[in-house]
C-alpha cells in the first residue's frame, strides 16, 4: 500500500499526517504550490512529487483539492494507467460520480469525508472522528479503513448534499451563531476578548451536555422552561437577528413538544410569539 496525495492544503496535510501516525506508507504530495507540497512532505516524512511520479508510485491516491477542482484533477490523471488503483476524493458534498469512466480504467473510486473542521494543516487528531464512505464495492477498502483506524459509516451518494449541509450547520454556522452572540455582547459593552471568554465556556458546556446526554436532553433556556415573557423580551431587542431567533426557537419548541414538559397553553403561546403574532404590543423595554 503506497499512498499519495494530490493537494497539500489543510485536509491533505492533516489526513496524511494522521495516516502516517497509523504507520501507513505515504509516498508523497503533488500540488500546484511547490512550497505546500514540500511542507506536507516534511510533515509526513515523504516527498514532493510531480504528477507523473505520484500517480505511478501510488496505488492509493487521495485528491484533497477544493471541490471545484476535483473533476479537473480527475481529467488530468484519467489517461494514466489506473488499473487496480484506489482513488478517493474527500469532498463532503460530491459523490464518486465525479470520477466519470473510472470502471473503464479498472480503477476503484470512492468519496471519503471526515465530520471534522480542519482549522490548519496540523489537525491530525482524528482518532475519535467518524467518516462517511461512499462508492461501489466498499468491501475492497475495508482493509485500508481498518489499518487506518477509521470509524466510518456508508452513505448513499444521493444523500451526500444533505449530509454535508448537516456539517455546515454544526461547524460553519456554529461560528455564525458565535458571531451573532459576539455582536450582541459588544453592544452590551464587552470587548472581543471578553466575548470569547464568555461565549466559549457556554458553548463547551453545551457540547459536553450533547455528548453526555444526547441532543434533546442538552437543551436548556427559556423555551424548554416555558418562560414566555423572557422570549417576548428577547424578541423586542434583537432587531436584525429577530428572524433567526424565531426560526431557531421553533426548533427548540419542537424539542420541548417531544419531551412533553410544557403545557398545551404554554406551547400555543410560544408558537404565537415565535410566529410574530404578538409583535411589540406585548413587549416592554426597561
TrEMBL record:
InterPro entries: 6-PGluconate_DH-like_C_sf (IPR008927), DUF2520 (IPR018931), NAD(P)-bd_dom_sf (IPR036291), OxRdtase/DH_put_Rossmann_dom (IPR019665), TM1727-like_C_sf (IPR037108). It comes from the Bacteria. Residues 131-249 form the DUF2520 domain. Residues 2-114 form the Putative oxidoreductase/dehydrogenase Rossmann-like domain. It holds the Pfam family Rossmann-like. Signal peptide: none annotated. This is Putative short-subunit dehydrogenase-like oxidoreductase (DUF2520 family).
Amino acid at each position: 500500500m503506497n499512498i499519495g496525495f494530490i493537494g497539500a492544503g489543510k485536509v491533505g496535510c492533516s489526513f496524511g499526517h494522521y495516516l502516517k501516525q497509523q504507520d501507513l506508507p505515504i509516498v508523497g504530495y503533488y500540488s500546484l504550490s511547490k512550497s505546500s507540497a514540500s511542507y506536507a512532505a516534511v510533515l509526513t516524512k515523504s516527498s514532493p512529487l510531480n504528477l507523473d511520479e505520484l500517480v505511478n508510485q501510488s496505488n492509493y491516491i487521495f485528491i484533497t483539492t477544493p471541490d471545484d477542482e476535483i473533476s479537473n484533477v480527475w481529467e488530468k490523471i484519467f489517461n494514466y494507467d489506473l488499473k487496480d488503483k484506489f482513488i478517493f476524493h474527500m469532498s463532503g458534498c460530491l459523490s464518486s460520480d465525479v470520477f466519470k469512466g473510472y470502471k473503464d480504467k479498472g480503477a476503484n473510486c470512492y468519496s471519503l469525508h471526515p465530520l471534522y473542521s480542519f482549522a490548519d494543516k496540523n489537525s491530525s487528531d482524528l482518532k475519535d472522528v467518524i467518516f462517511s464512505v461512499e462508492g461501489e464495492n466498499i468491501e475492497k477498502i475495508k482493509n485500508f479503513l481498518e489499518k487506518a483506524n477509521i470509524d466510518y459509516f456508508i452513505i448513499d451518494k444521493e444523500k451526500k448534499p444533505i449530509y454535508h449541509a448537516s456539517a455546515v450547520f454544526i461547524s460553519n454556522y456554529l461560528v455564525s451563531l458565535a458571531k451573532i452572540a459576539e455582536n450582541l455582547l459588544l453592544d452590551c459593552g464587552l470587548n472581543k476578548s471578553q466575548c470569547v471568554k464568555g461565549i466559549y465556556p457556554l458553548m463547551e458546556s453545551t457540547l459536553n451536555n450533547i455528548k453526555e446526554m444526547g441532543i434533546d436532553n442538552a437543551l436548556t433556556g427559556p423555551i424548554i422552561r416555558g418562560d414566555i415573557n423572557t422570549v417576548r423580551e428577547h424578541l423586542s431587542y434583537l432587531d436584525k437577528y429577530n428572524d433567526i431567533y424565531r426560526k431557531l426557537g421553533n426548533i427548540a419548541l419542537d424539542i420541548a413538544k417531544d419531551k412533553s414538559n410544557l403545557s398545551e397553553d404554554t406551547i400555543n403561546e410560544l408558537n404565537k410569539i415565535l410566529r410574530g403574532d404578538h409583535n411589540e404590543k406585548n413587549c416592554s423595554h426597561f
